[in-house]
Amino acid sequence: MPKKILKEKEIAIAEVKEILEKVDEEELGEFQRRVYEYSKKISSFKSAKVKKLVKKIIDAHKLTISEAIQIVNCMPSSIEEIRSILSVKGRTFQTNTFEEILKELNKFRKK
Q: For residues 110 and 92, what is the distance between their CA atoms, to the nearest angstrom?
């Protein structure tokens, strides 16, 4: 029987992992199990820290939640990678914005 979607919210992979860890693996469907396995492989950060980083990026650089989550999920290591993530919607940014985002990501990685 199909399940009814009650609420839709964009979240980072670390948050997905945290949510699925709370569910008994036997209760997960095939798709959910695959998503859980993927999130375990990809995300090595704590959900609470990722949420703070997303909020910090949104507040400091006036990005959408989608853009900030995409950056945090990819954890780019260069200005070019950040530029490619943010240029999809045709918005333009100054190079110092990319440098500041990269600096925040590098600080986050070192913690």
A: 29
Instruction: Encode pLDDT of 2-50 as tens digits.
Output: 778 888 999 999 999 999 999 998 899 999 999 999 999 998 899 999 9
The structure's pTM equals 0.86
Residue 89 domain-assigned (yes or no): yes
What total of structural domains would you count in the chain?
Answer: 1
- Cα distance between residue 11 and residue 3, in whole Å: 20
Distance CA 98, CA 80 (A): 9
Q: Which amino acid is at 56?
A: K
Instruction: Examine residue 20 and state whether it is found in any structural domain, yes or no.
Output: no
Read off the pLDDT of residues 56-85 as tens digits, 9 standing for 90 and up: 999 999 999 999 999 999 999 999 999 999
